[in-house]
Structures are given as structure tokens and as C-alpha cells.
Specification:
Radius of gyration: 52 Å
Order of helices and strands: HH
Number of helices: 2
Strand content: under 5%
Mean pLDDT: 90
Largest sheet: none
Helix content: over 70%
Distance between the termini: 169 Å
Low-confidence stretches: none
Structural class: mainly alpha
């Protein structure tokens, strides 16, 4: 009898231990599921971040392209400004020459003041 009771106690102990191990396994399984879900979420976040990085890199490339185009436009504008500066300098030189010619002509007219009056009166009288 005593041995049957011991045997029963041993069985109960083994069953309890097995039940406890099952419960622990179930808890661990639940923890694993939760961790798997967290991993999936992190993977999705990582994928989204990778996509954002790709989009930003694309935007950066486009911006770099625009910057290069604008730099080329600036170079062309600088070249045109240089040409216009040269044209202005040439125009200024021509204006100075014309001013000098006008001054010389005015001086000659003043020297020949009487002749101017004669020429003018001839032109007015028509003879």
C-alpha cells in the first residue's frame, strides 16, 4: 500500500512536472510569436526606411543635376556679360571719338564763324 501511494505520488509529481513544462513551453511559444511579430514590424520599418532613402537619393541626384544645369547657365550668362561689357567699352570708345570729332567741328566752325553766316545766308536766300 505504501508503495502504491508512493507510486501514485511519483505519477502525480511527474504529471505536475510535465504540465509545468508544457506551460513553460506555451509561454516560450507565445514569447517567440511576439518576438516574431516584432521582427516583422521592424522588417517593415526597415523596408520603409530603405524606400525613403532611395527616394531621397533620387531627389539628391535630381537636385545635383539641376545645380549642374544652373552652373552651366551661370557660366553662359557670365560669358554673355563679358561680351556685353566689351560691346559697351567699344561703344564708349566710339562715343568719345564722335565727341572729339564734334568738338573739332565746333572749333572749326567757330574759327570760320563768318563763313558760316555767309553759307547760312546763301542757303536761306536760295542763291
Amino acid at each position: 500500500m505504501f508503495s502504491e501511494e508512493l507510486l501514485e505520488l511519483d505519477r502525480n509529481t511527474v504529471e505536475f512536472m510535465i504540465e509545468d513544462m508544457r506551460r513553460q513551453i506555451e509561454e516560450k511559444d507565445e514569447q517567440i510569436k511576439q518576438l516574431d511579430e516584432q521582427i516583422k514590424q521592424k522588417d517593415e520599418q526597415s523596408r520603409q526606411l530603405d524606400e525613403q532613402i532611395r527616394q531621397r537619393n533620387k531627389q539628391i541626384k535630381e537636385s545635383d543635376k539641376q545645380i549642374r544645369q544652373l552652373e552651366e547657365q551661370i557660366k553662359e550668362s557670365d560669358r554673355q556679360i563679358g561680351q556685353l561689357d566689351e560691346q559697351i567699352k567699344e561703344s564708349d570708345r566710339q562715343i568719345r571719338q564722335l565727341d572729339e570729332q564734334i568738338k573739332q567741328s565746333e572749333q572749326e566752325i567757330q574759327k570760320n564763324g563768318g563763313s558760316k553766316r555767309v553759307i547760312h545766308s546763301l542757303a536761306v536766300s536760295g542763291t
